[in-house]
Design brief:
The chain folds into two domains: 2-183 and 362-371, Rossmann fold; 194-358, Rossmann fold, CATH 3.40.50.2000. The chain is 42% helix and 16% strand. It is built from 15 helices and 13 strands. Helix 12 (313-317) links the parallel strand 12 and strand 13. The longest helix is centred in the middle third of the chain and has 17 residues, at 138-154. The termini are close together. Mean pLDDT is 90; it is low at 104-121.
């Protein structure tokens, strides 16, 4: 089978998910092309996994001229593919628009992915995996809605990472909607002891709570800061640490400094296993999540989570943590208290986390799940 993956800018889970698919398909003897921004290839290394990579600027913001060039390039590059599997709403919409432009053109011989002969759409299957949901309004929301309709009407099958995404795409008329299976690579062992990590962070005797997130609007970090402000009567004030970077770093740091909050911004970290091993819990105050890699990593480390009940979080977390409503500051603070103070709670949730971590789908499960959406 000839499979072409198309994806946009990504710095994390989506790119690693596509790499898992590339490795599995190549290992099974399929021919694979990956189309996307050059920066993603530098970060993920699809060519090293056995795929042919071609750089095309699939941006994360609307730009009519650049988007038209991307549509035409993707259409040309993927003509010979049996399956085009796009990841993300913008990538899926660009592929769907290219297929529309190709209808009515002269038919030609099919070729290897990446060649210019052939005609997209004839016998070719378009699969789109949606990894994220809209969490902003205004002009961005309008554009997002248009792209959703293009994908719903243009894709042969839509794979979704959470039930709410599936319901929305079905309501927009998508022909086939099924759940996407997203795995997580094995978590490396921690290199330092929990006490060494705590000493580095200056936690002292305080409970340590970790958040792993891009510092962006979707992650709901303003709620985390509200909860961290306390009060914390009856037990020691926890130390909240946030590993990650992003556009909100300046604003978050300014508020932490102005209010004297017990929160530290750590920036980008490459020692996630160490942080999770030292933490009492992972805290996820997100507006929305699909199947977050960070939550899977926490469970594989045996670390329970306190998370908002949005998107696909509850399906992954199961009984290995505490769910709260998004934006519920008092509820988030009370969940932290419950985990830290109620006898037996931390131990019970940690045991459940370790069990859930052992149940995470492996790479072969992820690849077979994708193949089930392709033509036989």
């Amino acid at each position: 089978m000839r499979v072409a993956f198309v994806l946009g800018t990504t710095s994390g889970g989506t790119g690693r998910h596509v790499r898992t698919l590339v490795e599995g398909l190549v290992r099974r003897g399929h021919q694979v092309l990956v189309v996307g921004p050059g920066s993603v290839e530098e970060l993920i290394g699809f060519a090293g996994a056995g795929a042919r990579f071609v750089a095309v600027a699939v941006s994360d913001r609307p730009n009519p001229g650049r988007d038209l060039r991307a549509v035409l390039a993707i259409r040309r590059l993927t003509r010979g593919a049996d399956v085009v599997h796009a990841h993300g709403l913008r990538a899926g919409a660009l592929v769907a628009l290219g297929r529309r432009l190709g209808r009515g053109g002269p038919a030609g011989a099919r070729s290897q992915p990446g060649r210019t002969r052939g005609r997209p759409g004839r016998g070719q299957r378009l699969v789109v995996t949606l990894h994220n949901a809209l969490t902003a309004g205004g002009f961005v929301g309008v554009v997002y809605g248009v792209l959703e309709r293009i994908v719903a009407r243009g894709a042969d099958r839509v794979l979704v990472v959470s039930p709410d995404l599936g319901e929305r795409m079905a309501a927009l008329g998508a022909r086939e909607v099924t759940g996407a299976l997203v795995g997580a690579p094995a978590l490396p062992p921690a290199k330092r002891t929990p006490q060494e990590v705590r000493d580095e962070l200056g936690a002292g005797d305080r409970p340590l709570l970790v958040t792993l997130a891009r510092l962006a609007q979707q992650k709901g970090l303003e709620t985390l800061l509200d909860a961290a402000a306390g009060p914390w009567e009856g037990h020691a004030e926890p130390l909240f640490v946030i590993a990650g970077d992003g556009p909100l770093r300046g604003a978050l740091q300014a508020r932490i400094d102005a209010e004297g909050l017990p929160v530290r911004l750590l920036g980008y970290r490459d020692d996630v296993p160490d942080l999770l091993g030292a933490a009492e819990a992972l805290v996820m105050p997100s507006r929305w999540e699909g199947q977050p890699l960070t939550l899977r990593e926490a469970l594989m480390a045996g670390t329970p989570a306190i998370a908002t009940d949005v998107g696909g979080i509850s399906e992954i977390l199961g009984d290995a943590g505490i769910l709260v409503r998004y934006g519920d500051v008092a509820g988030l603070r009370e969940a932290v208290r419950e985990l830290l103070v109620t006898p037996g709670t931390a131990e019970r949730l940690a045991a459940a986390a370790a069990r859930r971590g052992r149940e995470m789908p492996g790479d072969d499960d992820v690849v077979e799940g994708a193949l089930a959406a392709y033509p036989r």
